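DUF632 domain-containing protein, pasting as requested.
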Amino acid sequence: GQSSDVLFQPTFLICCKGRNAASDGPEKHVTKLITWNRSLSSRSSASKNPLTPAQMDDEFSEICTDFVEEFCMISGSHASSLDRLYAWERKLYNELKGTESLKKIYDKKCVQLRHQFERDTSAREVDKTRVIVKDLHSRLTVGTEVLYSISKIIEKLRDEELQPQILELLKGLTRMWAMMHEIYQMQQAIVSSSDIIFVLKSPQSEPYRQPLVNLISEMGLFYSSLTNWIDAYQRYVDGLHSWLQKCVVQPYDHSRRRKLTLSPRRHLAPPMFVLLDDWSSGIASLPAEETCDSIKNLAADLKKMCKQHQAEGNKPEAGSKLAILQAGLATMFDRLSKFSAAMSSLPESVKNSTEAAREAYAIGRSG
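Structure tokens follow.
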């Protein structure tokens, strides 16, 4: 197989080998491979002005103290690093496009010079063309060195800034979802042990309908918020993973004439490749769809219950209806508990595999 030194060349070499990077169309068609939405909250995190527990509710402050203490990223502003990565990628593209145009002119002049030799053109014309070819060659050499320098800057940003920030983010995700797992387990236990008989004996009247309507509205907001978060989470990781895959020479099976899937471990890739490869594949196996469906199903049951309650003239709820509600809540919190457990274990697993890849990469490079 190919060695890691061949596969993980600087970015500009991969682009040059493609021969079509600068000919895909106008600059407006360049795909921004790393995209993110910068909200006010993300900007405030970069300003390093953390919130204080005094600003929070007393009951909530104890839970969130650990997160408040590390509200600012120790490894620096993630948004700023992505900004600079994109700027250097764009500069690399523009430099490459100029170098490709220069290379086409150089190739034409080389062909012209060869034809002049073959046709015994006058020495004056040959010398004139030779001078142009030498000048173009010098400019190409300088352009290649510039591309190489930019590529090394991108690699340094990737390994010394982006990777530590992602590892810190993974640590925060582990803690956040571990806390959510505990909360969902508590809620599931409370719902499962609730006494429906006590609820049936409680006085019920018209105000009962409004809380039910409010609950349906909150369930809709919860569903949309969770699905949007999961979607943004997946797009963020997939965007980084896709960008990183474009920075390497993909393995090629010459016998079958097709590209192969890059194996970061087998080809001894830098740890960042293992990190994003494992993270991206891990997200695909999360029970996200089942979790969101449980919320949607519960909201549908609540809407049905609300319509029946109104059609029956606001009569007290039957025990069977409340039992359905209780079962729906228990199912939802069970799915949320399993989802949060998977979400908290995934970052930890990715961190461990990245550390193992870092050690293997260091040994491989030293050997």
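Note for the archive: Residues 1-56, 63-70 have pLDDT under 50 and may be disordered.
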